[in-house]
Amino acid sequence: MSGSATGTAAQRPATAARRVFLALPLPPAARAELARLTESALAAHAPHLRLVDPSGYHVTVHFFGPLPGDELRRAQALCGPVVEALAAPVRCRLAGLVQLPPRGPARVVCAVFGEGHDALAAFLAAAGERIGGAAFPVAARSPLPHVTVARVRHGRRWRMSESAALPGAGPDTAAGTARRGIDFQRLPGHGEGAPAPFSLDQLVLFESRLHPSGARYVPLASRHPAAR
Questions:
Q1: Alpha carbons 76 and 203: distance in angstroms, whole number
Q2: Of 148, 107, 114, which Cα lies nearest the Cα of 21?
Q3: Which end of the chain is flanked by fewer CB atoms within 10 Å, N or C?
């Protein structure tokens, strides 16, 4: 998912289906830092890429797609059971950029995690079991924890190269991405320029509203692991 987050929801017809997804939004300081690093890393590739609005940075837990009223209420009710799979806020540190799909021309560029990767992967798997148990369709394989930061412009063919790595980075392989055969570009790991750690501590059900300038995200429900 990519787009911007908004804090208010306009009235919608009760019968209209809404495109909704569950996500863990990044806190403001982490969004600002990732935006700065991404802009620096991808500046030379601007003709090929459209950067995602940083206000919408998030880790997707599950994309439901268009849901009518009854199913939307079921999705809202799932926030409680799903957040129970998140025993506590997850301490994270961003590690690098990957392209997806990993082979052939890219569709998106994503930031992936070093610290926190395993905890997020376990949470996504557990969340998928709860969502599937509520009779919503889920993928056979849980997704790679990531934050989409850019999309390849329509009609362009582009692949990530070493020159697209973030400042101070070199090619490396993180455990989570290696298991999936995804080429990995590392962020600075320590010292000056290293991304600061942060916590993911909120699960939000967003509505995605399509606009010519990009999707806009409207929160419909939220839960915190400490308040479950």
A1: 11
A2: 148
A3: C
Say which residue the tokens 């999707």 belong to.
Answer: 215
Domain count, the chain: 1
Average pLDDT, the chain: 82
How does pLDDT run across 53-89, given as a tens digit for each residue?
999 999 999 999 999 999 999 999 999 999 999 888 9
Residue 169's pLDDT is what? 41
Strand, coil or helix: 17 = coil
- CATH number of the domain enclosing 79: 3.90.1140.10
Q: What is the sign, positive or negative, of the torsion defined by CA atoms of 32, 34, 39, 40?
A: positive
Q: What is the pTM of this model?
A: 0.83
Q: Is residue 1 in some structural domain? A: no
CA distances from 124 to 22, 29, 61, 143, 189 (A): 11, 23, 6, 7, 25
CA distance 149 to 102: 15
